[in-house]
């Protein structure tokens, strides 16, 4: 039998010309669909992929950036880590936030004292932070066809600037088809290296790419 699917929230936005659905399948965390595109990969499960992603950022510590909040799961998980003092979370689409408000699993995105939610585009908003602000960056942009600027060398250089020396980045790309996924991650890896990151590696279990900003060298 197919999994039971429940629609928790539905709204068509005339401003974006998109349909926003918050849906839940039996035993799974709710997922957001925008005009039929799932915001999180459900294979093997949203929770499994999230935990694999967070492992790439361990130890979870200091001040963290969640570049594209979406459902808020990554920001919430970062904030719950004892070593994390603050999470700055960006989400540009107010329609997304309205859908997420109907998700009980996302409540801490709005209630956690550790999370600072900014309703603006991270591409521009990140410029307001001083150099070396963040210890960890979780970058989970929309797919490449919808937000190409967040996969660009220009943006990766911005992330490199605000990340502390020795800081870690995890870049979620999702699980598109084999050929498309390989092409997207190959480009991501090349541009991250060009931006100055080291130890840039594909992480299939986490469905993304991990990278490190090199520590300052001793004189």
Task: Describe the protein.
The protein has a single domain (41-212), classed as Rossmann fold (3-Layer(aba) Sandwich), CATH 3.40.50. Helix 6 crosses helix 7 (178-195). The protein is globular, with a radius of gyration of 17 Å. It is built from seven helices and eleven strands. It has a seven-stranded mixed beta sheet with strand order 7-6-5-8-9-11-10, with helices on both faces. Strands 1-2-3-4 form a four-stranded antiparallel beta sheet, with helices on one face. Helix content is 28%, strand content 30%. Strand 1 (5-13) and strand 2 form a beta hairpin.
Short description:
The protein is an alpha/beta fold and 219 residues long. It contains 7 helices and 11 strands.
| CA-based gyration radius | 17 Å
> Biggest sheet, strands in spatial order?
7-6-5-8-9-11-10
What is the fourth-level CATH superfamily?
Vaccinia Virus protein VP39
Helix content: 25-40%
Beta-strand share of residues:
25-35%
Low-confidence stretches: none
Count of structural domains:
1
Count of helical stretches: 7
Look at the helices and sheets and give the structural class.
alpha/beta
CATH architecture: 3-Layer(aba) Sandwich
- The CATH C-level name is Alpha Beta
Mass-distribution shape: globular
Q: Separation of termini?
A: 64 Å
Task: Write down the overall mean pLDDT.
Answer: 92
Oligomer: single chain
Number of beta strands = 11
- Sequence of secondary-structure elements: EEEEHEHEHHEHEHEHEE
CATH topology: Rossmann fold
> Major β-sheet, in short?
7 strands, mixed
């Amino acid at each position: 039998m197919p999994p039971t699917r429940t629609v928790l929230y539905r709204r068509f936005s005339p401003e974006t010309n998109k349909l926003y659905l918050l849906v839940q399948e039996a035993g799974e965390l709710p997922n957001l669909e925008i005009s039929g595109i799932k915001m999180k990969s459900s294979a093997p499960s949203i929770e499994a992929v999230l935990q694999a992603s967070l492992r790439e950022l361990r130890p979870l510590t200091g001040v963290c950036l969640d570049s594209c909040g979406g459902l808020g799961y990554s920001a919430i998980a970062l904030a719950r880590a004892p070593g994390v003092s603050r999470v700055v979370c960006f989400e540009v689409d107010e329609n997304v936030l309205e859908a997420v408000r109907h998700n009980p699993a996302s409540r801490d995105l709005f209630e956690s004292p550790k999370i600072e939610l900014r309703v603006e585009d991270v591409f521009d908003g990140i410029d307001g932070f001083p150099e070396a602000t963040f210890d960890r960056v979780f970058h989970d942009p929309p797919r490449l066809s919808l937000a190409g600027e967040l996969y660009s060398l220009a943006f990766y250089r911005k992330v490199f600037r605000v990340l502390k020396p020795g800081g870690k980045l995890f870049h979620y790309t999702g699980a598109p088809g084999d050929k498309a996924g390989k092409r997207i991650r190959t480009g991501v890896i090349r541009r991250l290296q060009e931006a100055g990151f080291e130890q840039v590696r594909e992480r299939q279990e986490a469905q993304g790419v991990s990278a490190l900003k090199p520590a300052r060298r001793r004189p």
